[in-house]
Structure prediction request, 98 residues.
Amino acid sequence: IARALLLDRPIIIIDDGLSAVDMETEHTIIGAIADYLRGRTCIIVSHRVAPLADAQTIVVMDRGRLVAQGNHAQLLEKSDFYRTIHRQQSALRKAETI
Prediction:
């Protein structure tokens, strides 16, 4: 991720680049680079929902198929699949902090 940021490109792709860290650290890293990403296109491939909550557009895929698209609030409202994943991961995140 650091190398991608140092290249100062208008498009950044982070392909599951934070999967090796816990959810809290992932959230901290995304928050820390948020200012850098302003005005750039950033594509984040993630199995976790939390770091995507501030994204303008989230594309939800299941087994290679597009199942929903929208921002975090829209997906929580209209996508059972996204809502289920969000609830499961939120519960796991709470358990990690205990």
